[in-house]
Amino acid sequence: MTGWHASDHLVTRYADGGLPEADAWSLEKHLESCGGCALRVSRAVRATAAGPALAGIREAVLADVRGTVPAGAAPAAPPAHGPVPARSVARPAGLPVRARPWPRRWPSARPGAVRVLWALGPAVRGAWLPAVLLVAVGAVALAHGGGLANARPWLLALAPVVPVAGVALSYGPHADPMHEITAATPSAGLRLVLTRTAAVLAVSLPLLTLAGALLPSTGAPNAAAWLLPGLALTLASLALAGYVGLRAATAVTGGGWLCAVLGPVLAAPGGLTGELSERLSACLDGAPAQGGWAAAAVLCAALLAARRPAFHFLEKS
What we know:
Layout: H1 8-16, H2 21-31, H3 35-46, H4 51-66, H5 111-120, H6 128-145, H7 152-158, H8 161-168, H9 179-183, H10 190-213, H11 227-244, H12 246-267, H13 272-284, H14 287-306
Helix pairs in contact: 1-3, 6-10, 7-13, 8-10, 8-11, 8-12, 10-11, 11-12, 11-14, 12-13
Pfam families: zf-HC2 (PF13490)
Transmembrane segments: 127-148, 154-172, 193-217, 223-241, 248-267, 287-306
Organism: Streptomyces prasinosporus
């Protein structure tokens, strides 16, 4: 927002409540870092019919901070039971009451770090993270302790779906108890979805790739062959979410991948592992296959950027 400032017309429409919701969010986000525009908006709002009410609220808040009773305010009634607090004693208007010490300022993280941790919230807790660990550790344990010599194809078949499921489980009212409040903030929308998606990818991609590298296999693609398909499927889920919602989109993309990979394998008369290795080699091995997944990822990213406004209303109901 550097170099951009709200016009007088924009400030007036915001103060009168006539600004569209998306434009109001954009202006509120700008006011977080622009004191001049914030002062202009404050003056414009105080000049409306809501000005007297806001002035009364401001006076009450400042009086509470200073430990005084606002002028003209009635003293608080004492409680029916228990000791009477010092601030409940009737005093002349404006007379300072018993001084209250300022709250102790504990060392805190930087505001940017706090916002990032708040945004990541549901993406770093819940059931999906133990599920990723279970898939990775379980595959390694079955391969080396259970005698499953060709475990890598099965891990590669499931790996692209794991980040897709993680994204679905990290955003929405089912994942975040404060989702309604979060979705109403200026930082919500695509930015918040991408932040939580990045957290999901940062955990699942290296963990599943390392597990795949530890698995013995003959004829299967290498352990990193699923990374581009996993990224493309995740971006496809986000792009489709702008039309049908996040959970429906992840069900379509994740289910489509599993049907395309496992469907022909389950219907084949031969050995499942051998058929799966051949199927994965056709989908993942070689420059043409990886180039196709890269192109799909770029296309989905472009579509996601075009559908950005739709994410202001994603999973709000």
